[in-house]
Amino acid sequence: MPKTSPPFAKNKRKRVSRRESKKRELREAIYESAMALFLQKGFDNVTIEDITHKTEIAKGTFFNYFPNKESILLYFMRRHLEEVKDQIPGVIKEAKTTQQKLHCLFSILAKMVVTNEPLVKWVLLESLRLRVYKKEKKEVSGKILQNVVEIIRQGQESGEIKKNMNPEKIAKIMESIFFFSAIRWLTFDRHTLLIDDVKEQIQYFFQGVEA
Question: Least C-beta-crowded within 10 Å: which of 66, 112, 166, 186?
């Protein structure tokens, strides 16, 4: 005879599920309010009181979700980079060469930057200026970097990339190329599409590492 959970156990799970759902909704509400204020007034001019007033919550409630307003920058980065990471396997599986795979990966990142242009520009510049949580930022971007490392290793195994080069170092250089291409595009260079600029930069770099 199949085992069934007692009614009180099912009710408890439902209560926990509803509670977790409300927590997620409130976190998103705090995040959305904070980002709107940051864009409107500037990061330094926004206080936690401003955020809690706009979200209509107590100050103590804010600290249950974010330790400070700087952590909201990390939340933005983490959320969008997770979305990018989830897209990568499906996109690069159609690419045949290592260079094509790298183009696909960085094109996804470029599309994310362009789609969220005002927020990405502000977050990147603010995180540079404030040097927010270097360790945490490394952890967030590291998830994407690991995909680049894996593609490069596969390229070395297939004979497309020199085997005497460190794949981690190659990946970090490519990450830097993308990062500064994005900063340049966001701040003053709109004569070319970001995706085309990144593709060209990768192509030049690839010429130096291909076997």
Answer: 166
Same domain, 78 and 58: no
What mean pLDDT is predicted for residues 45-71?
94
Count of domains forming the chain: 2
> Above 60 in pLDDT, residue 160?
yes
Cβ within 8 Å of residue 111, ≥6 positions away: 195
- pLDDT tens by residue, 81-101: 888 888 888 878 888 899 999
Residues 33 and 118 in one domain: no
- Condensed to tens digits (0 to 9), the pLDDT of residues 183-204 reads 888 887 666 788 888 888 888 8
Task: State the DSSP H helix or E strand holding residue 6, giving kind and residue range, or none if neither.
Answer: none
Whole-number average pLDDT of the chain:
83
- Residue 68 maps to a domain: no
Q: Rounded distance, CA 50 to CA 41, Å?
A: 11
Question: Are 101 and 92 within 8 A, CB to CB?
Answer: yes
For every residue of the chain, DSSP letters joined together read ------HHHHHHHHHHHHHHHHHHHHHHHHHHHHHHHHHHH-GGG--HHHHHHHHT--HHHHHTT-SSTTHHHHHHHHHHHHHHHHHHHHHHTT--SHHHHHHHHHHHHHHHHHHTHHHHHHHHHHHHHHTTTHHHHHHHHHHHHHHHHHHHHHHHHTTSB-TTS-HHHHHHHHHHHHHHHHHHHHHT--SS-HHHHHHHHHHHHHHHHB-
